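ok new one. same drill as before - structure tokens go in, u give me an amino acid for every spot. 143 of them this time. try not to just spam alanines like last time pls lmao
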């Protein structure tokens, strides 16, 4: 068996698309933790950590190379949608690619959250490629 270098970016993209299609089929369009692929914009999925705090829920997503103006967040009852464009903050090059490993293109991630969070009071900060979203719990009604 002979080892060969594989540097053609077009081949790599086609392979990634084929692997994503297989994963979508196996996952039945959703993963075990309730997150789901979202139509044609699934692309690379950003890595996220979700934690419950005393005040609510904190979501931290790694979004290197995502320009703030390409980012869209939608906090609804029991969910948070994060959409954006990979590579929007990267410098454009005119040269012929020799190796391409950076992410480019649209992405979308849907996260299931507790129903008790108040999406209308959510606050988000994108700093150094890390998105932090704070979603407070709804105030308890006093009887």
């Amino acid at each position: 068996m002979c080892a060969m270098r594989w540097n053609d970016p077009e081949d790599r993209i086609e392979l990634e698309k084929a692997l994503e299609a297989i994963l979508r089929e196996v996952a039945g369009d959703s993963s075990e933790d309730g997150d789901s692929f979202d139509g044609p914009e699934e692309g690379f999925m950003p890595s996220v950590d979700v934690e419950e705090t005393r005040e609510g829920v904190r979501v931290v997503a790694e979004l290197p190379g995502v320009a703030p103006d390409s980012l869209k967040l939608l906090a609804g009852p029991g969910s948070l949608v994060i959409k954006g464009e990979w590579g929007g903050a990267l410098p454009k090059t005119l040269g012929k690619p020799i190796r391409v490993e950076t992410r480019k293109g649209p992405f979308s991630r849907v996260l299931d959250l507790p129903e008790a969070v108040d999406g209308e009071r959510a606050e988000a900060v994108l700093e150094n490629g890390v998105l932090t979203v704070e979603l407070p719990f709804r105030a308890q009604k006093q009887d």
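Strands lie at 48-52, 56-62, 72-76, 79-86, 105-112, 123-127, 130-136. and btw The helical segments are 9-27.
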